[in-house]
Amino acid sequence: MFVTGATGWIGSTAVDELLAVGHEVVGLARSEASARSLEAKGATALDGDIDDLDALRRGSAAADAVLHLANKHDFGNPAETNRAERAAVEAIGSALAGRGRAFLLASGLTGVVSGRPAVETDASPAVGPDSLRGGSENLALEYAGRGVRVVVVRFAPTVHGAADHGFVAQLVSAARRHGVSAYVGDGATAWSAVHRSDAARLVRLGLESAPAGSRLHAVAEEAVPARAIAEAIGRALGVPAAPVAPEDAEAHFGFVGRRFGMSITASSERTRALLGWSPSGPALLEDIAAGAYSLE
């Protein structure tokens, strides 16, 4: 299998999961340190990054399946992130077209629906190069009609665990800076959540058996209230929890403020039934209470 983002937060655990059950893994490595990390696990490193389209094509053409987890996540320049993601999906899809091989694409839940939890049958509204993630989810699914077993995994807004540097870590950093663990407005918004180990197992199951055109939801907890998240962070850090006005959220939290003021929730009922996936890792509030985000 060829894996992009192979040494990232989700990718490194997904590689461990794949290797543990006997899959051979080639991981895209943009540095010598990344290459050494992969090789120490028993994987093979392929030099390159998400902008190296030739490397993406070579790795994809030689693999029996591709797991695309890399993303620039440049929140200061979303247009560049979207461009790079779309170009990468085109490179991978074109290399796999007509070969009946699997292509699992990482996607997200932001903006899929509003006012209710998303379900797997909800199509992403992001279409075209100027849309969120460059419309990569819908672009990838087009290759299902071109002889590629495309599987989309939409990850919860927090894929949590010890040493996470994602959105919850940003909330923790804001709490340290301000001496208060804040939530937006009345804190009634909510996020879905999944532990990193459960996300990695879902990736493996999806690669192994999900049918072409599947949308899977890496969601263990459907809706964790924002206020509960802030209060758990406050207890872990020994600071009070308090509200911040919606118009002040971005100034208080940074880029994550806008998302923390949104409900980003989803069901994974269909995913569990399709793959027999049953999350077993710690819940988000359990992870926070256990100190996963308490250390500098």
TrEMBL record:
Transmembrane segments: none annotated. It comes from the Bacteria. Residues 1-209 form the NAD-dependent epimerase/dehydratase domain. SUPFAM superfamilies: NAD(P)-binding Rossmann-fold domains. Coiled coil: none annotated. Pfam families: Epimerase. InterPro entries: Epimerase_deHydtase, NAD(P)-bd_dom_sf, NAD(P)-dependent_oxidoreduct. This is SDR family oxidoreductase. The lineage of its organism: Bacteria, Bacillati, Actinomycetota, Actinomycetes, Micromonosporales.
